[in-house]
Amino acid sequence: MNFLETLYYDLQEEKEPDTPEYRENREIRALVLEDIQKAMGEDMAEKVTAIYTDRENLENYRYFLYGLRLGLELLRL
Q1: Distance, CA of 27 to CA of 36 (rounded, Å)
Q2: How many whole angstroms separate alpha carbon 20 and alpha carbon 25?
Q3: Closest to 46 (Cα-Cα) out of 61, 62, 60, 34
Q4: What is the DSSP code (8-state) at residue 18?
Q5: Each residue's pLDDT tens digit in the chain (77 positions)?
Q6: What are the residues whose beta carbons fall under 8 Å from the beta carbon of 9, sequence distance 6 or more?
């Protein structure tokens, strides 16, 4: 793991936000996963969760790198 990945994963472990929007989003996700579990079973719900978690992590890491690049470009101005 390189320095940027270490920094990203350390920052990722920050406390979850406690906003109404975040709580609502979390509740909606739980309801969707319950629906998947009822329709397709526990195994499929776990697979869907794993896939979305991996995609979310990759996307967040990409945004982190874009933000870091932007910050470095702004420092050069």
Answers
A1: 14
A2: 9
A3: 34
A4: -
A5: 688 888 888 777 777 788 999 999 999 989 998 998 999 998 988 998 899 889 998 998 999 999 999 999 999 87
A6: 1
